[in-house]
Amino acid sequence: MVTTVMVISTAIGPGITGILIDWGIDFPAQSLVMGLWCIGLSVFCHIVQRRLARELLQPMPLAS
Q1: What is the value of pTM for the model shown?
Q2: 29: Cα separation from own chain's centroid
Q3: 17-52 residue pLDDT tens
Q4: If you count Cβ atoms within 10 Å of the first and of the last residue's Cβ in the chain, which end, N or C, has fewer?
């Protein structure tokens, strides 16, 4: 499933970039937004990773 999403996203990316250039949004502006998007997702993933690590390290309650 992950491979499918990666293949589809890499296939769609150039088309979206081309459409945005046709609409007058130059490539450097697109690159800036894409870079900010990657930074934002990295911060989000770091937060999720820390929370999951904290939750997984808590002892599991024993069923009675």
Answers
A1: 0.64
A2: 19
A3: 999 999 999 999 999 999 999 999 999 999 999 999
A4: C
